[in-house]
Amino acid sequence: MILQKTTRPGGALVEVLIGFGILGIAATSVITLFPFAALTVGRALQDDRTTTCAIMADGQMRDVYAHYVVQQGATTTEPLFTSMGSGGSGPSTPVYVDPMGVAASQAGTVGDANGTHTQIPRVNLSFISASTNPSYSAFRYCSLMDSLSFDEGGNVQGGPAMREMRYNYAWMLQRPSNAAIYTVRMQVVVYNKRVFQYAPPGSEVVFSGVSFTPGNTSITVPGAADVRVGSWILDATNGTDSASQSIVSAEFYRILSVTQSGGTLALELNRPISRLDGLQNSYSGTIVVMPAVADVFDRPYLTGNFGP
User: Fold this and answer.
1) How many domains does the chain have?
2) Among residues 100, 103, 254, 237, which one has the least CA distance to residue 167?
3) What region does 154 belong to: left with phi over 0, alpha with psi -120 to 50, or beta?
4) Which secondary structure element, helix H or strand E, spans residue 285, and what is its range?
5) Which residue of 160, 246, 253, 280 is surrounded by the most CB atoms within 10 Å?
6) Could you give phi then psi for residue 95, rounded to 5 degrees?
7) Which range of residues forms the domain containing residue 224?
8) From CA 246, how far away is CA 248, in angstroms rounded?
9) CA angle 294–188–160, rounded 5-degree value
């Protein structure tokens, strides 16, 4: 029997092209994963840094509170304590302990330095105010030395800017009841890329007449509000609610979504609206758009239970 050789003209080329096509699809699939991986790593790094800041700030404030408030007792002049006022069974005046903001010459209260303010005092720590260089002391005390910074030649930069100090923080303090003078709620506010000694014009813009309903997860704000997904706002209401009950609020909310409707913006918040006094009455309040805030951490309460 004579075997005839069969041929497949162009068969080998088609197979090669198919192979390249399959390889291209696989390579494209792998390449598309890199941006998502980079974003995930970036978020993880930020979460790690902000959590570290919260832990550091928690320990620092407990030490300050023990030595400059509790141990000093009635003779204390620490602004974080005296600015809360006294008397009454309701929540105290919230106090924003923000040495970096003071160094940036922001207003004596939370709010736009060139515009509307709130009634929340912005104060410094007494030992920072009394230091030789208060601004630099605030920068060092309230910043995380997270990594080295380099010049264009790849050399580590020296001097005060040796560390990047990208993350810094402040404290929001408030007594749930002014009758318990040493029991204080503490929130640590961590900033990302907050510029040292500079507050941009129009930062911490204040909007009033915002309707709040405890338990709801959304509010409506004026369309002029510069808000976006992931940014933070502060409920800085100081007034009365729908039942004529006094309300003094200092609650932070992260924005999950923004929907424009005419001249207003509907904001979906990361948690239900709440009040420190526990009441559920609705109220017309005030919000502050907080720029550069990366995260806010509710920490265990400060108390007077310290040793000598």
Assistant:
1) 1
2) 100
3) left
4) strand 283-290
5) 253
6) -130, 125
7) 38-302
8) 7
9) 70
